[in-house]
Structures are given as structure tokens and as C-alpha cells.
Amino acid sequence: MKAVEIPSGDSDTCRTIGVAVVSKSPPATGDYDDDLQFTPPFNFAMVDHGIYRSGFPDPTNFSFIQTLGLRSIVYLCPEPYPEANVEFLRSNGIRLFQFGVDGSKEPFVNIPEETIREALKTVIDIRNHPLLIHCKRGKHRTGCVVGCLRKLQRWCLTSIFDEYQRFAAVKARVSDQRFMELFDVSTFKHIPKEFSCLKR
């Protein structure tokens, strides 16, 4: 696990903004104005106020990501972040937190609990919000982190698994669901009161 910090602005104020996907009708010539195209990354969704999830963003998604006003990205793959993405983060004052979880396939899946735990601590720290959690496809590694977050929020397992399966679809893994079921949230003693779903 490593956390890579790319300095953000001076403000410590966390802000939450609404997201609108803007589409533009094609002009008469049939050409599109690329500057007005906002394309979210694969499997993009809002998890909670100030927390988003997705698959790996590429340069075609950068305009959309700018609308989120991100402070941080939680990246769950061991591979180095591409230079174009690093430059985008640097120019937008977004911090990168990298937690290298191998993308193994069943039946040889080894989900490192301590790494997921450290990633989850970063996710619930509101000083890092708004943030985006992503892996390659936004299914397994991202699904495990979000599923463990839902346990902290006291969701029932049925709802946690339903959400996981919506993103994983036919690629859903029993090992991921078992990991989420057994994940011990009792060690998270200091959960921020500002964390929206925990105010209930």
C-alpha cells in the first residue's frame, strides 16, 4: 500500500455539488464540439454525498471529472497511475491515494483485508471529500470497498450484495461477497459524525 499525495488548494472546506451530465445536440454539419462533451467513466455512480465510484477514468472522462470538484482519488490497483492522469490530478489539485490490490480471478482470489481497511479509512475521512474510488472496471475491488463502507453504514447484507451485483453483473464473485460478509467493522471506533449516512 502506498499513498501518493498531489497537493490540493489551501481551502479546508468540504463541498458537495450536484452532478449533471450535459449532452449537446449535434450541429447541422454533424460535427460535435468536444469541449462540451461530458462523459463519465465506466460504472460511474454516486455512493454518498462527496463519494463517487467508477472504473478507470481515461482522458475522455476528464471534463466530466472536473465537474465533481474532487479533492482526492482512491486508486485500488498496483499498477502505476498513467502520466496523463497524474498530470490531470496535478493541474486540478487532486490528491492520489493508491492502495495496490491485485486483480486476481476466482478461485485464486486473495483480498488483502488490511489494505481494504486502510483504503476505507481514507474514504471516510471527510477531509478527503469529494473523492472518487476506482479500480480497473469499478466492479470487484471498488465493490469490496463500497460494500465494507455499507457495513459501516449498517446496511443489511442483502442490500450490500444487491448493490455489489448491480455493478459486477455476471462477473459477481462469491469470494467478494464472503469477504464483505466477514469484514469486521468493530475496529472503526472514530467514524466522523459528518459522514452523511451515519447520522441516522
Automatic annotation (TrEMBL):
GO terms for molecular function: inositol-1,5-bisdiphosphate-2,3,4,6-tetrakisphosphate 5-diphosphatase activity; inositol-5-diphosphate-1,2,3,4,6-pentakisphosphate diphosphatase activity; phosphatase activity. CDD domains: PFA-DSP_Siw14 (cd14528). It catalyses: 1,5-bis(diphospho)-1D-myo-inositol 2,3,4,6-tetrakisphosphate + H2O = 1-diphospho-1D-myo-inositol 2,3,4,5,6-pentakisphosphate + phosphate + 2 H(+); 5-diphospho-1D-myo-inositol 1,2,3,4,6-pentakisphosphate + H2O = 1D-myo-inositol hexakisphosphate + phosphate + H(+); 6-diphospho-1D-myo-inositol pentakisphosphate + H2O = 1D-myo-inositol hexakisphosphate + phosphate + H(+); 3,5-bis(diphospho)-1D-myo-inositol 1,2,4,6-tetrakisphosphate + H2O = 3-diphospho-1D-myo-inositol 1,2,4,5,6-pentakisphosphate + phosphate + 2 H(+). Residues 43-194 form the Tyrosine-protein phosphatase domain. InterPro entries: PFA-DSPs (IPR020428), Prot-tyrosine_phosphatase-like (IPR029021), Siw14-like (IPR004861), Tyr_Pase_AS (IPR016130), TYR_PHOSPHATASE_DUAL_dom (IPR020422). GO terms for cellular component: cytoplasm. It holds the Pfam family Y_phosphatase2. It comes from the Eukaryota. Its EC number is 3.6.1.52. Coiled coil: none annotated. SUPFAM superfamilies: (Phosphotyrosine protein) phosphatases II. Keywords: Hydrolase. Belongs to the protein-tyrosine phosphatase family. Atypical dual-specificity phosphatase Siw14-like subfamily. This is diphosphoinositol-polyphosphate diphosphatase. It comes from Daucus carota subsp. sativus (Carrot).
